[in-house]
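pls design
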């Protein structure tokens, strides 16, 4: 009985959630997944929070303190939920495997809105999608060993797989704001990581925007600022995409003559104010990334240290 209570209510944790957030190395923005926590603890109040595969809060840890933060607007009277089995880890993106884990670990079948929408799809479609994502991950793992002459071929193969994943979401499928394209976001994230590695910033920007769109985010940048009008599925991929968008726009501003620590990449007079506009947009993405970092890490005091711009842009 005691062991059952422990297993149902304890949380696996790390000493610092910020240690599990990407990127840690400028040359490799996406680190290998390590979702196996070495520590565990019992926090009484959070143990009452129910599961949803698409939760509206996220938990994080700083030492023996658990912090629970909203990752989308929550209406008065709405139930607070977080995921016991994150969708992009430990094969949880596959409906059947995720349900097995939930039944084995907590004794229930999930009927959240995400699972309900997935059940409405054909099993063959879900399996095809999972296989394509595995193919993408293999291509990504092979990338470091690829010669420069083969990178273009590898990226073309990656694009073909991503287009195939897109086709698995039929025209009758609800929009991403209702049914996030988890597999598509994971695949496009691998592509943006490769583009960033090879300093292809325009393509990195488009891929990052694709990640956010696939996860159901709707973002208005019409006034050279970043305003999230619709929050989607929240997880560290969102933080990474927003941070990379900051870098992309900062590179644009630098190339238009806006200085970084007194240095400029190209000596150019910005008579049209485009560089300042890009710098303003970059700052909007930086604030968005900082907010997401706070949601994922529980604090934002270490944000500037972990994501120091000078680590990623060499002048």
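designed seq:
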């Amino acid at each position: 009985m005691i062991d059952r209570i422990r297993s149902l209510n304890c949380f696996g944790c790390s000493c610092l959630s910020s240690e599990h957030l990407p990127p840690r190395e400028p040359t490799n923005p996406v680190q290998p997944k390590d979702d196996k926590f070495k520590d565990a603890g019992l926090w009484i109040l959070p143990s009452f929070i129910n599961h949803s595969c698409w939760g509206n809060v996220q938990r994080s840890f700083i030492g023996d303190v658990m912090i629970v933060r909203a990752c989308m607007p929550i209406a008065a009277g709405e139930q607070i939920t977080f995921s016991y089995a994150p969708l992009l880890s430990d094969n949880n993106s596959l409906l059947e495997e995720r349900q097995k884990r939930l039944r084995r670990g907590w004794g229930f079948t999930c009927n959240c809105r995400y699972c309900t929408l997935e059940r409405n799809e054909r099993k063959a479609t879900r399996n095809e999608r999972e296989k394509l994502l595995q193919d993408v991950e293999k291509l990504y793992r092979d990338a470091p060993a690829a010669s420069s002459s083969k990178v273009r071929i590898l990226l073309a193969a990656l694009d073909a797989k991503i287009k195939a994943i897109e086709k698995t979401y039929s025209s009758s499928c609800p929009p991403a704001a209702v049914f996030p394209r988890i597999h598509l976001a994971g695949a496009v994230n691998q592509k943006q990581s490769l583009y960033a590695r090879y300093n292809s910033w325009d393509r990195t920007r488009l891929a990052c925007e694709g990640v956010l769109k696939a996860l159901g985010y709707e973002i208005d940048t019409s006034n050279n600022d970043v305003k999230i009008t619709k929050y989607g599925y929240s997880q560290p991929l969102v933080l990474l995409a927003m941070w990379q968008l900051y870098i992309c726009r900062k590179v644009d501003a630098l190339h238009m003559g806006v200085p970084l620590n007194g240095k400029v990449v190209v000596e150019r007079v910005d008579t049209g104010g485009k560089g300042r506009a890009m710098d303003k947009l970059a700052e909007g993405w930086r604030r968005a990334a900082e907010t997401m970092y706070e949601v994922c890490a529980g604090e934002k005091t270490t944000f500037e240290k972990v994501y120091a711009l000078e680590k990623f842009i060499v002048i």
